Amino acid sequence: MKNKHDETRENKEEIVESSSIQNSMDVSRETKSCSAAPGAEEKRSILKSRAHELARETEKAVEGRNFIDIIEFRLAYENYGIESSFVREVYPLSNFTPVPGTPPFVLGIVNVRGQILSVVDLKKFFSLPEKGLGELNKVIIIRNELMEFGILADIIVGSRSISLDAMQAAPPTITGIGAEYLKGICEERLIILDAEKILSDENIIVHQEID
């Protein structure tokens, strides 16, 4: 049988063991808490990484604003571009109907899925060298909020993006085309037309004459 002295000693040992276990659990929780919370150096590293990521996103947004998408096409012997945002579609020129009494630069009218549109020959409007119609001729239908018509293209080269920073003012040697119709010219002599100006110019709007 156990005497009181032995029972007292066992009770003390149980209390000490229980206290030790509790202390171990507390230390473990503190260790986990310390490992979960980043230190000052780690916080600085995280903030620096986030700042770099935001900077890259900002740079991408700025770069996006410095480029425009265009449809590149050929008139006579020059390559031109017009902003894609003003282009509704490219339509094959299979036939057209001349309209008497219209200016010489009006090729005629075409029926595009039931819609009658006038087609402007920019070669004549800009006094460019003449070149006969070929089987690859297309009509680029351009529009804004108020106006819509087609412009004739000898060849559609394709679509591309160009940098506005690389665009230069057109030199006066560009034959026939007034500066008011141009946004600029690229190094490879790609002439960018001002679609907004073309669509709003009273000299080229002929819808009143062909009604």
Structural features, described:
With 211 residues, this protein is of the alpha+beta class. The protein has 2 domains: 4-64; 68-200, Beta Barrel (OB fold (Dihydrolipoamide Acetyltransferase, E2P)), CATH 2.40.50.180. Helix content is 33%, strand content 30%. It has 4 helices and 10 strands. The protein has helices at residues 4-36, 40-65, 122-125, 195-200; strands at 67-75, 78-83, 87-92, 106-112, 115-120, 138-143, 148-153, 155-163, 182-185, 190-193. Strands 8-1-2-10-9 form a 5-stranded mixed beta sheet. A 5-stranded mixed beta sheet has the order 3-6-7-5-4. The radius of gyration is 37 Å and the shape is elongated. The model is unreliable at 207-211 (pLDDT under 50).
List the helices and strands and how they pair.
Blueprint: H1 4-36, H2 40-65, E1 67-75, E2 78-83, E3 87-92, E4 106-112, E5 115-120, H3 122-125, E6 138-143, E7 148-153, E8 155-163, E9 182-185, E10 190-193, H4 195-200
Parallel strand pairs: 2-10, 5-7
Antiparallel strand pairs: 1-2, 1-8, 3-6, 4-5, 6-7, 9-10
Spell out the key features of this protein:
five-stranded mixed sheet; 211 residues
Could you give the count of β-strands? 10
Estimate the strand proportion: 25-35%
| Most strands sheet | 5 strands, mixed
Global morphology: elongated
CATH class of the largest domain: Mainly Beta
The number of domains is 2
Span from first to last CA?
123 Å
CATH architecture of the largest domain: Beta Barrel
H/E topology pattern: HHEEEEEHEEEEEH
CATH fold-level assignment of the largest domain:
OB fold (Dihydrolipoamide Acetyltransferase, E2P)
Looking at how many chains there are and whether they match, the oligomeric state comes to single chain
Rg of Cα set: 37 Å
Q: Give me the number of helical elements.
A: 4
Q: How much helix is in the residues?
A: 25-40%
CATH superfamily of the largest domain: CheA-289, Domain 4
Q: Which residues sit in consecutive blocks of at least 5 with pLDDT less than 50?
A: 207-211
